[in-house]
Design goal:
With about 130 residues, the protein is α+β, with helices and mostly antiparallel strands. The protein is built from two helices and eight strands, in the order βββαββββαβ. It has a four-stranded antiparallel sheet, covered by helices on one side. Strands 2-3 form a two-stranded antiparallel ribbon. Helix 1 (about 25-35) runs antiparallel to helix 2.
């Protein structure tokens, strides 16, 4: 068994509301597409089932109190200089939203292209 190759990285977590928009588009979608255009190594969006923010109002997915503004976390991991260079774009779109930065270790695959889908890199599921 080979020891994985690791390198230092930075994880950016942006906490937004599901209904937050930037120019009529969900903020989380805009962040992901801009991260892709900026050449960052990856971004993922996770929808929360319950949470609260600055308003102190609890939003939940439970049936009796359906919310249209559930918490959403956008997570981006890359080398520190790349993430820090991307921060101003995120700050512009996610004005007032919480953002955190955490040092992390990035585990690199030995053959980076081995796990790509049949269409190669890019957005899966969308026509080119």
């Amino acid at each position: 068994m080979t020891t994985p190759v690791t390198e230092p990285g930075l994880r950016l977590t942006v906490l937004v509301g599901e209904s937050d928009t930037w120019h009529h588009r969900p903020v989380y979608t805009e962040i992901v597409h801009r991260a892709h255009a900026a050449g960052l190594s990856g971004a993922s969006v996770f929808r929360g089932i319950e949470g609260f923010g600055a308003s102190s109002m609890i939003h939940t997915q439970r049936l009796l109190s359906l919310s249209e503004d559930l918490p959403v976390a956008v997570i981006i991991v890359d080398a520190e200089p790349a993430v820090r260079a991307f921060l101003p774009q995120v700050a512009e779109m996610a004005d007032g939203c919480r953002m955190t930065l955490d040092a992390c270790e990035i585990v690199r695959r030995e053959n980076p292209g081995a796990q790509e889908g049949p269409a190669g890199p890019g957005i899966q599921g969308e026509p080119e």
